[in-house]
Amino acid sequence: MVRKRIEYAQNFLTDRRLVNELIQSANISRSDVVVEIGPGEGIITKQLSEVAGRVIAIEVDPDLVMKLRNKFSEQPTVEVHEADFRSFTIRERDYKIFANIPFNITSDIVKGLLTRTNPPLSAHLIMQQEAAMKFAGSPTETEFSILWKPWYDFAIERRIPRQAFVPVPSVQPVFFLILRKRAPDVSTKHRSLYLQFVRHGFEAWKKNLKSAFEDVFTYEQWKRLSHDLDFPLKPLPTELNYQQWLGLFVFLRDRVAPEKWAKLSIRK
Q1: 188-261: CATH number
Q2: For the chain, which residues make up each domain, given as ranges?
């Protein structure tokens, strides 16, 4: 039990007024099912229950689960589950996430959300600023941000004072939004091709994208794309923004012979 509590160590919000502000900004209504990850002693759960139609609270600590079930025993709209969110099955088709997540498993939680067969409509997550910047591709795009932006919008909505938590974290917390796009920029049909294309660009052994894609685009095609999409002739993967990456992919999809798509192997 000691080992588990260390693994899931969490900085809990104690400022009820701040919690209310964050929930209000998330536009949660009585028509929403909201999943909360790591509710702790229920300060967020309580305020979510006042605005959402249903709250599904998922807590891994059995002692906290007992406290939560006692606290919300008279509120049928609040469900408390003892489980690790990373392996928990959400059966609802449409739901939102609102959570102050354990900082040490942030990456696992975010990747798990995005890759679910039924991802959330939106996720408001309190996390460390450094991780949020990586996910959002701010100020510089990352492999993660380019891989997922066809299907999601990411935004750091505000910084949160460290003093609002117990214990006080050593990192800067932020309020981070993941919003599922109603109309994705890449179709389901071409999803695998897009992911392979981006991974090849970031992981190919060549030094720049011109070299990485030399077997896919001709020199004249690459020169034209560089001009039309306004990027350097020999850019690093992180020097292109999402729209430029998307422009490259659309050209690949529509103008490059499918036989050349096989050149998109990922070299370590």
Answers
A1: 1.10.8.100
A2: 2-180, 188-261
pLDDT attached to residue 96:
98
Amino acid, single-letter form, for residue 255: R
Q: Is the pTM of this model over 0.85?
A: yes
Per-residue model confidence as pLDDT tens digits over 78-132: 999 999 999 999 999 999 999 999 999 999 999 999 999 999 999 999 999 999 9
Q: What is the CATH number of domain 2-180?
A: 3.40.50.150
Instruction: Tell me what percent of the residues of the chain surpass a pLDDT of 70.
Output: 96
